Every structure is written in structure tokens, then in C-alpha cells.
């Protein structure tokens, strides 16, 4: 449950420092794919954040594949102090709503760690072949990420 001192919103260029602070430890542990500051700057409009007292405590990005009517929820991170709360659910709901508003009918994630969390929220494991073609070409087999997909119906 989000608290009144928190807000969920689309990220802006001013949020890059906070997002980097949140995701760097997860990148260093190999949980998230590494993103450069430049990449974040170019993709900032795809990010949604939860902020508390001017600190970014959670983030996620939506990468749409409009031709296939599929979206990828990526770079999902919640600050360790807030992981036992529902911040992840709040982000998932917001990203799913954005995807539906964009005319997408499915949402997928690539994950090495949070498989059960996503399955509990309606995602099912699918074959890599179900990914959009451009994403399939970028799939990193060394990470051994599981592909999970959900209908936005």
C-alpha cells in the first residue's frame, strides 16, 4: 500500500539520478541488465517511478512493441526497505494500464529471480519464440532469463 507521502508518476530527466541509485546495486548483482546514464536519458519517457520524500523508491519501464500489440515491463526495482509492501503491485498495475491505453493486449517480462512473484500475478512462462522478433534477436541466452507473459484483457 502506498502512503500519502508517496506519489507514482512518469519519470522525467530530473529523476535519472534517483533511478540510477535504485538500480545500480541490482545491476551489480546481475539481477538487472546494466543501463548507462545515456541509455536512461534516451528512454526516460518509458519509466514510471514511485517517489517518497523526493527519493525514488521504485521504478519500472514499459517498452511497447505496437506491431505485435505486446509490451515489455522491464527494469523493475523496489528499494529494499519497501519490498515487503505492495509497491511492486502498484507499479505492475500502472504499467499494465499504460500498456492497455497504448492498445497493447499482452505484457511480458524477462526475469531471472522474480518468477513466482509474476506467476502469482497472472503471468505464465512462455517460449522465447513468443517474443516480438526484434526482442528475440536481442535475447541474452547467457542470462537464462525466463519469459513470462500475461494477457491484459
UniProtKB/TrEMBL annotation:
Enzyme class: transferase
GO biological process: L-arginine biosynthetic process
Molecular-function GO terms, alphabetical: L-glutamate N-acetyltransferase activity
Compartment(s): Cytoplasm
Domain of life: Bacteria
Entry EC number(s): 2.3.1.1
Assigned keywords, A-Z: Acyltransferase, Amino-acid biosynthesis, Arginine biosynthesis, Cytoplasm, Transferase
Pathway assignment: Amino-acid biosynthesis; L-arginine biosynthesis; N(2)-acetyl-L-ornithine from L-glutamate: step 1/4
GO cellular component, one term: cytoplasm
PROSITE patterns: GNAT (PS51186)
Catalytic reaction list: L-glutamate + acetyl-CoA = N-acetyl-L-glutamate + CoA + H(+)
Residue stretches making up the N-acetyltransferase domain: 6-153
HAMAP family attached to this UniProt entry: N_acetyl_glu_synth
Known partners and oligomeric status: Homohexamer.
Family: Belongs to the acetyltransferase family. ArgA subfamily.
Designated name of the protein: Amino-acid acetyltransferase
Native source species: Escherichia coli
Lineage per the UniProt record: Bacteria, Pseudomonadati, Pseudomonadota, Gammaproteobacteria, Enterobacterales
This protein's encoding gene: argA
